[in-house]
Design a protein that fits this description.
The chain is 30% helix and 28% strand. By secondary structure, it is α/β, with parallel strands linked by helices. The protein has a seven-stranded mixed beta sheet with strand order 3-2-1-4-5-7-6, with helices on both faces.
Length: 192
């Protein structure tokens, strides 16, 4: 496997490359792709906030349920972005930009009218400026989980209450299990 050749993998969870590919995290991204494809199968620019090792970009490259002209992986950690760049280059992705930035300071200047902002890291990205800066009328996909110490969400409605959309196009929950515990992931897709 390309990933194994690039990195020495020893952990099965946490902030490691291997931990980013646990079945629950992969499945939650496939779930997002499936539901987003029903709403918008063609996307101009996709901002992926808290992109980690570029897992969503990799899945979109290898299993293109959605046609995306440009993906922008946004993360604060340069090592995650380096790993993402290496993995995606080896996978043949040519439409990915890697941006080291605080999501709360983005201006989304590359977004366009057919763009989407994806945040599957609601539990980890503090504040609401990332959401407040998104232009009205933009498609937004968000995921969070329960049973975490920091930002708490107990339902899709909790996401919608904190990050109100003008129109909700999808709302759902998915029971999953990570290497340590069972949990529920929530997803909202809609128009800001």
């Amino acid at each position: 496997m390309i990933v194994d050749e690039l990195y020495n993998l020893e952990e099965s969870s946490g902030y490691s490359l291997e931990g980013s590919f646990t079945p629950d995290l992969v499945f939650s991204k496939l779930w997002l792709m499936r539901e987003l494809a029903k709403i918008s199968p063609d996307v101009g620019t996709m901002y992926i906030l808290g992109s980690w090792y570029g897992n969503l970009s990799l899945l979109l490259t290898r299993f293109p349920q959605i046609q995306v002209d440009q993906m922008i992986n946004v993360d604060t950690d340069p090592e995650f972005l380096k790993g993402s760049r290496d993995i995606l280059n080896n996978a043949g992705a040519r439409n990915v930009e890697h941006m080291q930035a605080d999501a709360n300071r983005l201006d989304y200047r590359q977004l366009g009218t057919d763009g989407v902002v994806v945040n599957v890291s609601l539990n980890d990205i503090k504040g609401q400026d990332w959401f407040n800066h998104i232009p009205e009328g933009t498609l937004v996909a968000m995921q969070a989980r329960d049973q975490v110490e920091n930002e708490q969400f107990a339902s899709p409605e909790d996401i919608e209450q904190k990050f109100p959309l003008s129109q909700v196009l999808y709302s759902g929950s998915l029971d999953l299990e990570d290497p340590e515990t069972e949990y529920t992931r929530f997803m909202i897709i809609g128009i800001k």
